[in-house]
Design brief:
- The structure is a homodimer.
- The first copy, chain A, is an alpha/beta fold and about 325 residues long.
- The first copy, chain A, folds into 2 domains: about 110 residues, Rossmann fold (3-Layer(aba) Sandwich), CATH 3.40.50.720; about 180 residues, NAD(P)-binding Rossmann-like Domain (Rossmann fold).
- The first copy, chain A, is about 30% helix and about 20% strand.
- Chain A has 11 helices and 12 strands.
- Chain A has a 7-stranded parallel sheet with strand order 8-7-6-9-10-11-12. A 5-stranded parallel sheet of chain A has the order 2-1-3-4-5, covered by helices on one side.
- In chain A, helix 3 links the parallel strand 4 and strand 5.
- In chain A, helix 4 packs across helix 6.
- The longest helix of chain A is centred in the middle third of the chain and has 17 residues.
- Chain A is elongated and about 70 Å long.
- The mean pLDDT of chain A is about 95.
Chain lengths: ~325, ~325
């Protein structure tokens, strides 16, 4: 903070478009702030808003007292070896993202359960044929991760009549959702999921968790939806389970390599639906308001919510 | 009712499959009932379960004291000139159908709002491209008809963050839904709907209501979803509005002629999504339980719910 009470916030964002939008929204939410772009000669700022910044960001900004990740996941930031130890990291909490993610999952679950693909195929043949009713209560959808993203997904699916079960590290109670945790075992949770939504952060505990063994725990014909991080799933194991017909299909928004390389098999697999990491787009206006609120709280000596626990990695 | 207290129920259903399922479910729900099929020599029954029965049904069943329509809409039954005046008509109330219909509408609205079709097209080209975020709160979805079907549709859409307005004949209050009625005028209601869901019964007041003039009240680029009855919409006017680009597209589950003839232009219109009247399939088990409950109420001299007011036609 400089002499006249001004606060400065550095932007370390991947795209120039996003930086421009963040600059304008932050300025609106916090008119007294000085917003500085990432540059070799940038003045030392008090705070930073980050999304996969250019290498060397932290050496160019040595006086930060806290940083804000411009998204819900912070795996990329905690994996950055140049992140100073002890520097408080905050993540966006919801900020309009949970709503989008729930909408994405609801769409994919409804599409699968109500056999929309079949009706689309019939339309191409001008074929009028009704398929028998299947009750959503008879379809169990599992949500892996019951945090800020997983919980609204579970609630939205339950409100549409699906039988929903959720898995969290530690015991949870959520109305209308059968809750599982480590004491029950992931395998038992998975064995009842006709559809499975991955909505947990990427941490050492979730990385590669969905390998051939875990995918085999799902019942035959299950459908996987991944809106979390590509690294939760072993892609070769997923492709093998799809090829073998053990999984009926998958809706994937996240991948181990993004953008997904054009020649990647997943793009053209007939049972895979692909979106380019858009299930939850950061709503910059709302996120900037969150950053502004937290900056004011920090300056007033309060502890804002959204502080990342580096030990558990989210 | 015959001497030993037995009750008999005649089935007048269109398909043999449905008749067989109704027979088995009714027998289970009401073990003391005698279920009779529609036939020239069928014994005279006390009640009937009907779905577009064969011509002459009512002359073959002259002693009915009430009939149950095996679905939510009763337009086909009230249009039957052989239906005896004064014979009480009951309709299935919900019976699992509203849940399905809400799911259908939610799917189509999410698909349109979140530009699922674009991402599908991009997948075919292995193209990784994100489209900007559009807030669901910035999208107004109108629901025409706020009855047993319309209300759950409006609620489900509101819970996903959409701005929802509803239109009913008479004034309604629904939390989270901006309610319009005849005093506001249909045109004013329509002028703000980026998507419009038709969920009203077919009555003399709703037949042909969505003609060229009313469709023109929708803003340019609107999307129509019809889960009510085909007769609410003038199909030539709809096709003209689609061809002119005034409407961006339509999701249609119901048609003026069903099955939709294979050579009908709607099947192959690039902006039209077609399903074969499956947005709400009658859940026979649940509907049979409703009929059983009502038969027992009628025999006990009570008035069950679901009685159709022939004057208003639903």
């Amino acid at each position: 903070m400089d002499r006249n009470g001004e606060v400065s916030i550095a932007l370390g964002l991947r795209s120039a478009e996003a930086a421009s939008e963040w600059r304008s929204q932050l300025q609106q939410a916090l008119p007294q702030a000085r917003i500085v772009d990432d540059a070799p000669d940038a003045p030392a700022a008090d705070y930073a808003v980050l999304w996969r910044p250019q290498a060397g960001f932290f050496s160019r900004q040595p006086r930060l007292s806290a940083v804000f990740a411009a998204g819900a996941g912070v795996d990329w930031l905690l994996a950055d070896t140049s992140l100073p130890a002890g520097l408080p990291v905050f993540r966006i909490e919801d900020g309009g993202m949970a709503e989008q993610m729930a909408a994405y999952c609801v769409h994919e679950v409804l599409r699968r359960h109500y056999r929309v693909d079949r009706y689309e195929a019939q339309q191409r043949e001008a074929q009028w044929r009704e398929w028998p009713y299947l009750s959503p209560a008879g379809c169990t959808v599992g949500v892996f991760g019951l945090g800020k993203m997983g919980e609204p997904i579970a609630r939205a699916l339950a409100s549409l009549g699906f039988s929903v079960r959720g898995y969290a590290r530690s015991a949870r109670a959520l109305e209308g959702v059968e809750c599982f945790d480590e004491s029950h075992g992931l395998e038992r949770f998975l064995s009842g999921c006709q559809m499975l939504v991955l909505a947990a952060p990427l941490t050492p505990a979730t990385r590669d968790r969905f390998d051939a063994t875990r995918l085999a725990c799902l019942p035959r014909g299950a459908w996987l939806i991944n809106v979390a991080r590509g690294e939760l799933v072993r892609e070769e194991a997923l492709l093998a389970a799809l090829d073998a017909g053990h999984l009926a299909g998958a809706s994937l928004d996240v991948f181990r390599t993004e953008p997904l390389p054009p020649d990647h098999r997943l793009w053209r697999h007939p049972s895979v639906r692909i979106t380019p990491h858009v299930a939850a787009i950061t709503v910059i206006a709302e996120s900037a308001r969150q950053v502004a609120t937290r900056v004011l709280q920090l300056r007033a000596g309060q502890t804002p919510s959204g502080l990342v626990d580096r030990g558990r990695a989210y």
